[in-house]
Amino acid sequence: MRIMARILFVEPFFDGSHKQLLDTLIKGIDFENTGYELFTLPGKKWHWRARTSALYFAEVIPRKHVFEVLFASSVLNLAELIALRPDLMTCTKILYFHENQLIYPVRKQQERDFQYGYNQIISCMVADKIIFNTLFNLNSFLDSIPSFFKLQPDHRPKNLEEFIRPKSKVLYFPILIQTPLLVHPSAREMDKSEVLHIVWPHRWEHDKGPEKFFLVIDALIEKGCNFRLSVLGEQFQQIPSIFSEKKSQYQDVLDWGWVNRDRYVDVLSSAHVVVSTADHEFFGVSMIEAAVLGCFPMCPLRLSYPEIFPVDCLYRTELQLIKKLKYFCKNPNASRNLQMNLDKFKWPSLKSQYEEILLIKKQDSSYTTGISN
């Protein structure tokens, strides 16, 4: 006899890292004694998912249930869902922050939609537990609440950070990736000794800094550096024009655009260096996956990166990045010299903590704030 589910997963944007997280949890945790149900919307039209998904889920989540835990990403307006479905109020409500809207980069201040950040704040007010994927994500969100409300003309709320912080915890995104066995290790090392392979594996959007990346690549070409290039990443309706402009200019391009998961893993496994030029990053799944697969990560000295990677992997300016990549072009095998332990980001190290959050009873007092060890 099939048991009624106690765990309710809700994801308004079921794609990318949001989908990857839930896939890892559902495949990696034994729900035999608790059961689970998953309600999602396709990962497109993010702005509309953030605005309206609560009403959709209020209609489709069954009213006859025994749910004890509700786990949702911060794309969902949790406050609206609970107002529309007060029967879910008794659940332990867990809100997971892949990113936060309070410091999302925009071209102009007036372009910021106040409602997105506001929705995340009021969702925190009704959540029982709030999970951030990095300490940078947690602190940047909580520290920005007072300045965020300066956009409000009057009657501003006070002391929200003091109410939200005790419910907040850092729990890293779980990396689960298998090293491909398509090529013998000695052959891979031989291949890596020939020509440097640089990979840029990010969403094709302005906040990932593609313009800066291509300026760096242009500088390497002007200096006569020899390298191969892979530009990977998910694409949406509005693609920065720089991608089409540069595709026809570059030679020795191995991959350009979206590739399936198997090819993605193969590319990262064969590359020497993975580069980020992001202006917006709260974790960096692809950068950590690439590092796990043997790439030398080169990241800006900002955002979540100093929390994750050692100082040798961080650059202050694009000139520093160019200098480092030029060195690797002349010495590809030097990219293999980095000693870095990434076990704390891997699923086996994090599994028990996610199990505790999802499966503990509400009266269990073991939930604590701060960074998980």
From TrEMBL:
<feature type="domain" description="tRNA-queuosine alpha-mannosyltransferase N-terminal">
    <location>
        <begin position="6"/>
        <end position="175"/>
    </location>
</feature>
<dbReference type="InterPro" id="IPR051862">
    <property type="entry name" value="GT-like_domain_containing_1"/>
</dbReference>
<dbReference type="Pfam" id="PF12038">
    <property type="entry name" value="QTMAN_N"/>
</dbReference>
<keyword id="KW-0808">Transferase</keyword>
<keyword id="KW-0328">Glycosyltransferase</keyword>
<protein>
    <recommendedName>
        <fullName>tRNA-queuosine alpha-mannosyltransferase</fullName>
        <ecNumber>2.4.1.110</ecNumber>
    </recommendedName>
</protein>
<dbReference type="GO" id="GO:0016438">
    <property type="term" value="F:tRNA-queuosine(34) beta-mannosyltransferase activity"/>
</dbReference>
<comment type="similarity">
    <text>Belongs to the glycosyltransferase group 1 family. Glycosyltransferase 4 subfamily.</text>
</comment>
<dbReference type="InterPro" id="IPR022701">
    <property type="entry name" value="QTMAN_N"/>
</dbReference>
